[in-house]
Amino acid sequence: MKKKRVTISDIASEAGVSKATVSRVLSDSPKIKFESKEKILKIMEKYSYVPNHMAQSLAGSPRMTIGIIIDELANFFFIEVADEIDQVISHSGYTMQILSSRWEEENELKLVRQLISSRVDGIILAPVSEDSRSIALLKSSDIPFMLINVIPMQKKIAYVSSDNHQGGKLAAEFFNKMNRPSQILITGFPHQSITNRIQGFRESLNRAEELLHYENISTYEQGYEIASVLVIKNRLDQIKTALFITNDNVAIGIITRLLEIGISVPDQVSVVGFDDIKLSKFCRIPLTTISQGIKDIGKIAALELLDMIGNSGSTFPKHLIEPQMILRQSAVLS
Amino acid sequence: MKKKRVTISDIASEAGVSKATVSRVLSDSPKIKFESKEKILKIMEKYSYVPNHMAQSLAGSPRMTIGIIIDELANFFFIEVADEIDQVISHSGYTMQILSSRWEEENELKLVRQLISSRVDGIILAPVSEDSRSIALLKSSDIPFMLINVIPMQKKIAYVSSDNHQGGKLAAEFFNKMNRPSQILITGFPHQSITNRIQGFRESLNRAEELLHYENISTYEQGYEIASVLVIKNRLDQIKTALFITNDNVAIGIITRLLEIGISVPDQVSVVGFDDIKLSKFCRIPLTTISQGIKDIGKIAALELLDMIGNSGSTFPKHLIEPQMILRQSAVLS
DNA sequence: CTGTTAGCGCCTTCAA
DNA sequence: TTGAAGGCGCTAACAG
């Protein structure tokens, strides 16, 4: 009962021409009689004919699509990067497909395999781990790809990332000036970008040996929850504290909860975030944070990938973006 | 110089078997000798062989992917719906591809065509317009699809949407109780969902004839900007005002600006939003808003689509979700 | 358990 | 300007 899909042959026979001729109007070839073209177009219209992209691609047409794998949809950082990428590539006629690995390496590998399998023209990946198997797989494919939010271990891999080590350092220098009695670090999944932030932070931080550290806090919900714990265990209500939180989403969650409890930010507790997502301007206490240059990351990744596709991936552009301290209200140098 | 991709034939000849045998290990067929399988697997591994999905699909394999087209990436409502959908379908082994129409109908049509062209198993579309050409195209295809955030004109189209008219009514009833001297409505693109909210709101609102209305405000940046204008033109600083803003993102932007200017929310200006995105709990003044039941929308859309794919799209489930008033701080009944 | 034979729908020479 | 033929990489009967 399933109605058969109309194919190029159907169109051809109805028009009384060969498949080749129909194919020519599909690819908008110039060498075709105007009337033939008109007629074929009309028939296509009549049947709402949509050529089978799989077949086209199999037969050699470029797909004109790039795939991007991000770690999570709920993280504004990735969404903003993706949005920027979409803007750029669509100008060149490409379409972007977003996939989410949900921070699962197995899942990421599956998605990468899928993208390779569907022969997209290029891939942008924010890998769960810097030595993820996905990267090896990608390398063995001949599809141009670009890593974001990570600095790969191997050579000959294109990437764009912010200098997270430097970002951590910036935060530390700010902390040193604030010089609060209590200093706490809150980080997310053990990801290279995070590790580098931690290192950069610790290395430049005064009294680093006293630093308290909470890990695996990654969403604003989790931030909201950990805040209560912090208050009790580390007496945030009594000891002037500085928080460095390596993710704006989390920072916003924490601040929200602190305010509810009646702890003032930045007076009692000052908070420095990381990323500078758009939202950090719009949250309850605008965030003092380290900017990753989100728009730059997206734009550069897209442009370079497009370029690599043009050069059939023989180059490996590398970009390390300089982070920047953005002073707003959640932490100030009184 | 471009290294040729390894195909099933390469694997087959290297293993000294036929393509069919290799294909069998690909599909994990039981009727295959264990040693053959092992051997073939090893060779695949050696070459990092990834089967061509285009070819597989052309030859009849289901793609196991669904496509979703949303209006914009920067809108948390859509992202949250998409995230929910991804959760659900991935449990069934499907992969989701997200595409963004950027509120452009032409672009939407192109993307729909692309999805049909690539023969995905199902499509979820948040159409720019309720009588978009995309919908007609989708109908003429034999791919199961589900509309979200809209109530289609024609019958026999599956959809899930919140009852926006009712949502507007809820807001109006709340406004009537607040009974502020000045009442202002702020809406986004002229989309059916918005129109319904407006209608529902106006119909139940006391003193609706005095209602002021600003249109085409759709992002929090735009909200942030319009706030200054509002203050000046409508003397928000002097006249107690109630704002109904049909989009939480915008509402958050507006509140942020109002606070900066020194206008208190909800005392001087009370704000009712729409959507209940997660963020509305975390913004500077937690939002009183109309909940669309975002998670429900995503879950239902995904589940029903999966079901339609199973039944080869012969059913047309329709869901109208009851919106709900969520009382937080940005507007209260004193 | 395995090989052979046909396509799937389209594009691309090569001739006409 | 058009048509015929071959092939892209894989799956699906149908024989053995």
> What number is the mean pLDDT of chain A?
93
Pair with the most extensive interface? A-B, 56 and 56 residues
Number of helices of chain A: 12
Strand content of chain A: 15-25%
Describe the 3D structure.
- Two copies of one chain form a homodimer.
- A six-stranded parallel sheet of chain A has the order 2-1-3-4-5-11, sandwiched between helices.
- The N and C termini of chain A lie far apart (75 Å).
- Among the domains of chain A are: 1-49, lambda repressor-like DNA-binding domains (434 Repressor (Amino-terminal Domain)); 164-292, Response regulator (Rossmann fold).
- In chain A, helix 11 links the parallel strand 8 and strand 9.
- Chain A has 334 residues and is α/β, with parallel strands linked by helices.
- Chain A has helices spanning 8-15, 19-26, 34-47, 53-58, 76-91, 105-117, 133-140, 164-178, 192-204, 220-233, 248-261, 294-310; strands spanning 65-70, 95-100, 122-125, 145-148, 159-162, 182-186, 212-214, 241-245, 269-275, 288-291, 318-321, 324-326.
- In chain A, helix 1 crosses helix 2 (19-26) and helix 8 runs parallel beside helix 9 (192-204).
- Helix content of chain A is 44%, strand content 16%.
- The radius of gyration of chain A is 26 Å and the shape is elongated.
- At the A-B interface, helix 4, helix 5, strand 2, helix 6 and helix 10 of A face helix 4, helix 5, strand 2, helix 6 and helix 10 of B.
- The structure holds a DNA duplex (16 and 16 nucleotides).
